Amino acid sequence: MSVPEDGAQAWAAAWELLLPAATAPARARGRTLQSALREAVRSARLAPGTRLPSSRELAADLGVSRGLVTEAYEQLTAEGYLRADRGSGTWVGGAARAPAPRARDLAPGALHARVDFLPGSPDLSLFPRSAWAAAQRAVLAELPHHGLGYPDPRGLPRLRTALAELLTRRRGVVADPERVIVCSGVAQAISLLGQVLYARGERTLGAEDPGSPEHAQQLATAQIATVRLPLDEEGLALEPLRALREVRTVISTPSHQFPSGIAYSARRRAELLDWARAVDGLVVEDDYDGDFRYDRAPVGALQGLDPERVAYTGSVSKSLAPGLRLGWLLVPDALAEDIVAHKRVMDLGNPVLDQELLAHFIEGGGYDRQLRRCQRAYRERRDILVSALAEHFPGTEVTGIAAGLHIIARIPARYGPQDAFLARAAEAGVALRPLSGYTSALPDDGAIRLVIGYAQLAPARIADGVRLLARATKAGP
Questions:
Q1: What is the pLDDT, as a whole number, of residue 54?
Q2: What per-residue confidence (pLDDT) applies to 6?
Q3: Cβ atoms within 10 A of the Cβ of 87, count?
Q4: Rounded CA gap, 261 and 449, in Å?
Q5: What distance lies between CA 101 and its chain's CA centroid?
Q6: 91 forms bridges with which residues in the sheet?
Q7: Which residue, 176, 40, 170, is CA-closest to 98?
Q8: Domains plus CATH for the chain?
Q9: CA-CA distance, 250 to 271, in Å (whole number)?
Q10: What phi and psi values does residue 114 have, to the nearest 5 degrees?
Q11: CA end-to-end span of the chain, whole Å?
């Protein structure tokens, strides 16, 4: 069918609606064609301004008489669905209006607050757009045509090698590129582990309390339940874990526990690995923000102590942007083959261009520069937040400040009760998350315990936000 370029795409979208006219009984073909055209215009499959094929062309394609098409065009023109311009053909008119479909945005964090202190987000304005664009141009220029084919489901060898070198240097892991699996963030890594462990007969995993609710949700997709295990001042408490005979795998955040902010002690790390060896089990280490330690060198990853008993995962969600959906999973040799098999079935591998781009960025030193830039910015913001809380909420205790992108604030009971405090904050447009959202095991002392994220806010905005919170809760001067 010869259709002008300006209407070809719209016409193709509605073409299938006209096909019944070609197979309808002879007496009904005219009515069927008119009805199909009318519906195509009404539903916006044929948008206003779309030029239709000539009556001769449409009749030939449908195998009907030209007179039948001409009659249909004339009828719909009279009704206002079409318009005919002498010498220039027949067009879709503008009288019919179908409601335009609207796409909802279900992205998390679509919160319209004046000040957003919710934890978990980096400052996306720090994303290195210029350096990333330069790396993208370089990758597109150097990537051979065959490189755009289906990739190794584990990830491109170039990226796995770059990640192995990076993680060995920065996080102290034992990283063989053959056991590095590129994933769509930590979420996919945990889901993959859950599927493999379920296939091996595991039905329950241990998880920290307090801890990340997302871990339980991700494991639930693999039909694995989680049992919450308490912490003490050194990390995950071992006695409750040892008492659970059915649990042989535990998921943890030992370098910077989420959300409490503690780092597991050396003794507790050794005890946790001893438990894993004794039960022939596994520790899943979520190193979600291991590079962000401000007052001394980062604590090395647990995986470096026993790579055969620890599955290690991390991502660029905090260092670059969560929207990149790039992460990694280092697996013990005993799990590698099954993990790769599940990854191949799940998605046939991650996008090639994104992998090449991240590899290029790491190899050229861009990733290390980005981490240094973020560390400087986030250290400043942490200090401003701690000072502002001390000024406007005297007596507040802050913990978990040595690393990461959030703190735990214990605000004295005189500013409570907590529910009223949170309600007044919300009315003022200050978004907060209580520690009770991560655990139910809290002292009943009336104090207000909050998990306050600060990385996503500019320094001045942090100070203004605490000041606004103080006024809203009648705590400030």
A1: 86
A2: 47
A3: 5
A4: 14
A5: 25
A6: 51, 83
A7: 40
A8: 5-92 (1.10.10.10), 115-121+369-472 (3.90.1150.10), 144-364 (3.40.640.10)
A9: 13
A10: -65, -40
A11: 76
Low-confidence ranges of the chain (pLDDT < 70): 1-17, 19, 21-22, 97-101, 109-111, 475-477
Pair of tokens at residue 367: 């990733």
Q: What's the chain look like in SS3?
A: CCCCHHHHHHHHHHHHHHHHHHHCCHHHHHHHHHHHHHHHHHCCCCCCCCECCCHHHHHHHHCCCHHHHHHHHHHHHHHCCEEEECCCEEEECCCCCCCCCCCCCCCCCCCCCCEECCCCCCCHHHCCHHHHHHHHHHHHHHCCHHHHCCCCCCCCHHHHHHHHHHHHHHHCCCCCHHHEEEECHHHHHHHHHHHHHHHCCCCEEEEEECCCHHHHHHHHCCCCEEEEEEEECCEECHHHHHCCCCCCEEEECCCCCCCCCCCCCHHHHHHHHHHHHHCCCEEEEECCCCCCECCCCCCCCHHHHCCCCEEEEEECCCCCCHHHCCEEEECCHHHHHHHHHHHHHHHCCCCHHHHHHHHHHHHCCHHHHHHHHHHHHHHHHHHHHHHHHHHHCCCCEEECCCECCEEEEEECHHHCCHHHHHHHHHHCCEECEEHHHCCCCCCCCCCEEEEEECCCCCHHHHHHHHHHHHHHCCCCC
254-302, pLDDT tens digit by residue?
999 999 999 999 999 999 999 999 999 999 999 998 889 888 777 899 9
Q: Please give the Cα distance from 184 to 179 (Å, whole number).
A: 16
Q: In this structure, which amino acid lies at residue 330? A: L
User: What is the token pair recorded at 129?
Assistant: 């757009």
- Cβ atoms of 332 and 273 within 8 Å: the answer is no
The pTM of the full predicted model, rounded to 2 decimals, is 0.82
How far lies 269's CA from each of 86, 197, 285, 300, 311, in Å? 83, 23, 11, 11, 14
Place of tokens 């059915």: 246
Residue in 105, 111, 108, 107 with CA at minimum distance from that of residue 431: 111
Structure tokens at 185: 């963030």
Q: Strand 406-411 vs strand 397-399: parallel, antiparallel, or unpaired?
A: antiparallel
Q: Please return the burial class of 444, using the count of CB atoms within 10 Å of its CB with bins 0-12, 13-18 and 19+.
A: exposed
Residue with tokens 């993680």: 167
